[in-house]
Amino acid sequence: MAKMTERMQELFAKVPTAILATASGDGAPNAVPVGAKKIIDSETILISNQFLNKTLANLKANPKAAISFWDGYEGYQIKGTVTIETSGKRYEETAAWIEDMGNKSGFPLKSKGAVILKIDEIFGLAPGPGAGKKLS
Fold first, then answer.
1. How far lies 107's CA from each of 98, 99, 110, in Å?
2. Residues with Cβ < 8 Å from 100, sequence gap 6 or more?
3. Are the CB atoms for 136 and 121 separated by under 8 Å?
4. Rounded (5°) CA angle 14-17-20
5. Residue 61 neighbours by CB under 8 Å, 6+ apart
6. How confident is the model at residue 130 (pLDDT cuts 50, 70, 90)?
7. Which of 21, 34, 120, 122 could form a disulfide with 136 if both were Cys (CB 3.0 to 4.6 A apart)?
8. What are the pLDDT digits (tens) for 4-40?
9. Alpha carbon distance 6, 115 (integer Å)
10. Whether the predicted pLDDT of 1 surpasses 90
11. How many other C-beta atoms can be found within 10 angstroms of the C-beta atom of residue 73?
12. pLDDT for 88-102, tens place per residue?
């Protein structure tokens, strides 16, 4: 299990959108932008599912995923294993958060589930000789 540093967590919270990459059971890749994201702790990321159709099907067939985020020349790719929660306290909190987000934006949103990514590995995305280097 890998852990995000404070700086990684700050950058993740700062960027409005990250890219979530998945693959189907037969290996077909899929990457989508996600904005409804937050850090649970240094080892866990939560992504709310409002519109994840193909992504959700992929995660059910293959729970491995990667999320990439960057700002300027600093960025990270986090790889991990996903579980999907559609009931319970964490899901209820996510649903309330997403409903509030939708109300504030004037665009109604409803969470269909909380995608929980437990971090396995972290890689750097900064350009240069260290690009792609495993950091944790």
1. 11, 9, 10
2. none
3. yes
4. 125
5. 24, 25
6. confident
7. 122
8. 999 999 999 999 999 999 999 999 999 999 999 999 9
9. 22
10. no
11. 9
12. 999 999 999 999 999
Q: What angle do CA 127, 8, 33 make, to 5 degrees?
A: 75
DSSP state at residue 32: E
Counted residue by residue, the chain has a size of 136
Residue type, 72: G
The residues, any chain, with a CB within 8 Å of residue 13's CB and separated by 6 or more, are: 38, 39
Sign of the four-CA dihedral 53, 56, 60, 66: positive
Residue 106: exposed, middle, or buried by beta-carbon count in 10 A (0-12, 13-18, 19+)?
Answer: exposed
Helices (H), the chain: 6-14, 53-61, 89-105
pTM equals 0.93
